[in-house]
Backbone:
């Protein structure tokens, strides 16, 4: 029996280091041969598997694979797409097995976050259900850092570094002109359900009077009066106030602040997310001149500011996933296990997919200061190693070089799927 | 007669490299001695001169001065403050001369943009008016790049690099997930009156189908229908559309788009700037899923991504200003003069302050493509050298180290001013 071919799938929102995991997978498969046959990459995530749009990674030179690992965003395309429950609709599952069978695919490496691990779990159960030999290994990836069991998620460390650096830099800008100009600056960051990224903003200062003066976490119910009083105090004491606000900041009843805006004259719901809502609140209550930035996709694509630690995690996750599959593993997700804080040490390990799929890890309450507006020493101990180390991509003409990887499409062997 | 003391003043919005100009001034004054006496820095810009809040730069070690040059934001504090016309109110002018006389200050280095050069011009005329020997030299600084005569303004190259890199990175993020998720991404950048920073976003791609697909300039009247059709075409052709939008984008009648939002249910004017207005327009007309980022202060404080060329310009501006003053110059601004495009060569030169104060340099129409949505080869030739070269600050613990410079206050010799 020939060795099984393998398929690598990117899923969900991209990160600055997702392709370092792809690099890890490709390099490990090449080393694992002949235990593994060909390695394909799915075009546009699970959609590529359904529509038989496969790319042949074997065509890439070692140099191209290295360059791949330096490119942010999803190099092969990703998708937000949830398979139906097997019990409700089997069609997609039969199609996937048809595609896997047609291309001799017996190993799937599924690179994603919470929702993606649910898909990975479904795939891992497919072999048994449909009597086809299939192993599926989850490779963690999410800037939200909310996968359980693993100490951290590849992609988070770089987003954390971006937010910490941006907060530090913008705070210096505001501090220098607060006397006659902007007194309050808000940086809106990602994290709809968990405050990990917002917490990373806390690394910008050492705590005592340093910016950020206020962090808003989804985990801490927002109280307008207390918040505004804190802004006032900060401006009074330091001449300015820097706020890092998670997009998931919400009231005690669960309503997101970002949904609290009114409707305009035409009945259109006010767009613009959280930062403008906070800014308007501050304007009306305190009258301070304010500015805000919204990091949005910049925080998860800023490969120029990637954390070297995060990059190593991402690459190792890919490598370890291949090693696990070669040893016969299935229905497991690679995890990053912290083995020491100072100096920071870590290794890769594994967790059953059914322990990680569809579960979210909140920021521990012990990482948030008693007043709810800052991070504790425990949070710093956790976060600091994850932003450690610089890993610049090559630059040319003043800009980072992000090569597109040019892979041939694998010839289709099946009729189209619709 | 003892050599005149000198005063260095930061003015207007900070940049990522403003303190490199301070470094240039301090180092040049130390070399110019004994032709120059002490060098003071004003606390909070011109306010420090009015209120006799002066810092003694001589206390800084050479090492501290180097570190100063690596710190974004205004290290001594800056101010947005316009002096009254001499004809309308002489009080502030007499006070300034009192402060200068009390501290033996005969040279002022005024580091700022358009408005600040107006203040510098007023100061330069003061000596003659009030019969006090005073030289004032303007040192250019503005991310807006809109000072006339000079080929470019220190601060701009780094903001341009930030916007070009961010556009390139976010575009890769969007491209990879456009099939099932966000199709339109908007990056809102600074430049209320001129599209220089927005133009820099164009460096992210080479033009042919690359992001950004649309740039909105203040110089090109906004036409909603044409814009929306262009967004639709881009999504149809490339699956996605990346837009770099200057905050100064406006309709033919001069109204800013950012002011076009409605009022909410309480009659509050809608906050949130340009990006949400464009997003809402796209949502309603085309229904595409969209995201936007607002760079705000991040783009002018991102010292971690400073352009090495910009940094050299900034430092040279400070040095040259001191040399000009030592040679007896007054009422002049240092300029950056381009002497070659390929390879890029430059030197410092000078322009009379009355030729630069209160004048704005627009983006030349020849830098904008005929359709109004992109940049031409001429723009690339101009912009490219300005973003060239990386100049990372030192990093510690994963974050850039930005040292505060600790300077003693100069003892006051005058009563308070109010």
Residues:
């Amino acid at each position: 029996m020939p060795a099984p071919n393998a398929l690598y799938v990117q899923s969900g929102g991209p990160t600055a280091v997702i392709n370092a995991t792809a690099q890890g997978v490709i390099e490990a498969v090449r080393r694992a041969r002949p235990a593994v046959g060909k390695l394909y990459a799915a075009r546009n995530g699970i959609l590529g598997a359904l529509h038989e749009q496969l790319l042949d990674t074997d065509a890439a030179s070692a140099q191209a694979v290295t360059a791949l690992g330096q490119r942010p965003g999803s190099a092969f395309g990703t998708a937000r797409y949830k398979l139906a429950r097997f019990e409700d609709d089997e069609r997609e599952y039969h199609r996937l097995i048809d595609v896997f069978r047609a291309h001799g695919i017996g190993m799937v490496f599924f690179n994603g976050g919470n929702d993606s691990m649910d898909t990975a779990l479904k795939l891992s159960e497919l072999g048994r259900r449909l009597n086809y030999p299939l192993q599926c290994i989850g490779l963690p990836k999410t800037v939200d850092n909310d996968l359980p069991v693993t100490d951290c998620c590849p992609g988070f460390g770089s987003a954390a570094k971006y937010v910490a650096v941006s907060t530090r830099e913008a705070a210096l800008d505001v501090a220098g002109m607060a006397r006659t100009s902007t007194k309050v600056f808000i940086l809106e960051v990602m994290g709809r359900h968990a405050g990990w990224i917002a917490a990373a903003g806390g690394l910008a200062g050492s705590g005592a009077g340093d910016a950020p003066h206020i962090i808003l976490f989804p985990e801490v119910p927002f109280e307008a009066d207390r918040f505004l009083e804190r802004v006032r105090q900060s401006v009074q004491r330091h001449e300015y106030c820097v706020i890092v606000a998670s997009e998931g900041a919400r009231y005690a009843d669960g309503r997101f602040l970002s949904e609290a805006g009114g409707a305009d004259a035409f009945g259109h719901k006010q767009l613009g997310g959280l930062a403008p809502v906070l800014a308007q609140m501050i304007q009306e209550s305190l009258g301070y001149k304010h500015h805000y930035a919204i990091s949005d996709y910049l925080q998860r694509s800023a490969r120029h500011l990637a954390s070297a630690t995060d990059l190593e995690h991402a690459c190792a996750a890919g490598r370890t996933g291949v090693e696990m599959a070669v040893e016969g593993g299935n229905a497991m997700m690679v995890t990053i296990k912290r083995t020491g804080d100072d100096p920071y040490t870590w290794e890769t390990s594994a967790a059953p997919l059914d322990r990680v799929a569809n579960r979210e890890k909140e920021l521990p309450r012990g990482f948030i200061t008693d007043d709810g507006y800052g991070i504790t020493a425990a949070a710093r101990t956790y976060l600091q190693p994850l932003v450690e180390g610089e890993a610049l991509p090559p630059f040319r003409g003043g800009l980072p070089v992000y090569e597109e990887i040019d892979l041939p499409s694998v010839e289709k062997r099946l009729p189209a799927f619709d």
Remarks:
- The longest helix of chain B spans residues 156-177.
- Chain B touches chain A through 85 residues (CB under 8 Å).
- Residues 253 and 417 of chain B are 44 Å apart (CA to CA).
